[in-house]
Amino acid sequence: MERSEMEEDIKKKKTKAVTSDVWRYFTKLGPGDDGIDRAQCDGCKQKFKAGGKQYGTSSLKRHLDRF
């Protein structure tokens, strides 16, 4: 195995740490049928898209502001 292949394998295994405070109030559900990660509000059980750059935590924060 070449060095570049090993580096790619290591990058695939690393996961980013959760840094937003909203994750105290939401549970990550994993990808939906469309492959986009989902999150569920621990209070009302509503589900949201929450993954990647397009679906960040802003919508989750707005949901919390309504309560």
UniProtKB/TrEMBL annotation:
This is BED-type domain-containing protein. One of its GO terms (cellular component) is nucleus. Keywords: Metal-binding, Zinc, Zinc-finger. InterPro entries: Cuticle_assoc_protein (IPR053031), Znf_BED (IPR003656), Znf_C2H2_sf (IPR036236). GO terms for biological process: regulation of transcription by RNA polymerase II. PROSITE patterns: ZF_BED (PS50808). The lineage of its organism: Eukaryota, Viridiplantae, Streptophyta, Embryophyta, Tracheophyta. It comes from the Eukaryota.
